[in-house]
Specification:
By secondary structure, the chain is α+β, with helices and mostly antiparallel strands. Helices cover about 40% and strands about 25% of the residues. Helix 6 runs parallel beside helix 7 and helix 8 runs antiparallel to helix 9. The longest helix has about 40 residues. The radius of gyration is 27 Å and the shape is globular.
Amino acid sequence: MKLSKIKVEKLFGVFDHEIKINNNIGITIIIGENGLGKTVILEMIEAFFKANYLYFNNVSFEKLIFEFTDKVIWTLEKESNTEITPLLTLTQTNKNKSKYKPLKLFQFDIEELEMLANRITRFSPHFRRIGQKTWLDRRTNERLYINELIRKYGNIIVDDFYFAENERPKWFSDRFNEIQVNLIETQRLISIENKEERTHERTVNKYSNELSRLIKSYLTESTELSSKLDRTYPNRLIKRLKQKSNATNEDLNRELKNLEEKRKLLDAVGLIEIEKDSNLLEIENPEDVIIDVLMLYVEDSFEKIKIFDTISRKIEILLEIINKRFKHKKMFIDKENGFLFKSTIIKNDDNTFQEIPVNKLSSGEQNELVLFYLLLFKTEKNSLILIDEPEVSLHISWQNSFIKDLKEITKLNNLDVVIATHSPDIIANNWDLRVELKGLE
């Protein structure tokens, strides 16, 4: 079950937009003139499915409508019938047109607002209370009443706005939990590390370290499995020898060849290291007992490296995409360093190629690396991924091949991707995937 259509009515008080998601191809491209709300629609979708209902305080709209592939429809309505916070209600219309009791998602009384305001000011040292319902922003000397404080800075405490499980009706929680949405924003080179202190780190460094830790976790898992298989190998071998073998010499040599190819792939993507003289040789006319011994060895070897199947494919795609784009440098994956770049033209005194720190890549290169890492490693299967202006800092030739590479990733992770763009080079020859937002004629 996925989202199949998204509609917004009276966005900014005037625009009605409908976006039909291309579930077959997995990619939908939103185009339209500036000011029609492309970015805002992506933010609204993410805010709803991340339960960041405070976001809707700052957006003027009447209805946000989600249609799912099973024909169920969710309608989010906003009523600004209070001076402090708007009322958000959600209604589910079933395939047979029946409806559940509308669910109130967001509206607080004054005591609850006081609690929210106190949480916001605890997270930031910049606010000082100067009245019963008034705070001073010491950065700007701006006086903020309680509703203004929550409206402008409620995103600081967004994680606090998830329902307790026992407060969610089943019709809502079952569907809500199944839909995973991630927004890849235009600004993606700097990430906020500490929400309270607002400290920052370059995203490429963060993800490089993260990939290193991920690889090490897979290696640890593989080592534990290897120990288990090695401990039980003698008993399993004796059991295998007592049984009549159906394996042939041809079967053995075929599996040895497959195992060697698999190991070479894992070596190429930086997950394991194989010795230069470690090639598994073909066995000529072995005795049956030798076939059984080696077949069990091969089966165990495949089991040990099966753990790497998914991550190796992701790394392989990432390396392929980056290395066909970046000029005069080559990307490697290293279990200690994560991303590793080497010049293909500049050498050190010892005649080895010079390493290039990831934070010394150009802004366009960093954008490309971060964007595809996010798509490959930071998304769950069957997710809806929202990308705002993927063309930022990208060379035209990179933009032209973006959708082609994206299709490979959507197949791997079974993703639906919705892109908001101004670039015809991103669209390239994929005009059949576009949805155009219209203004008032």
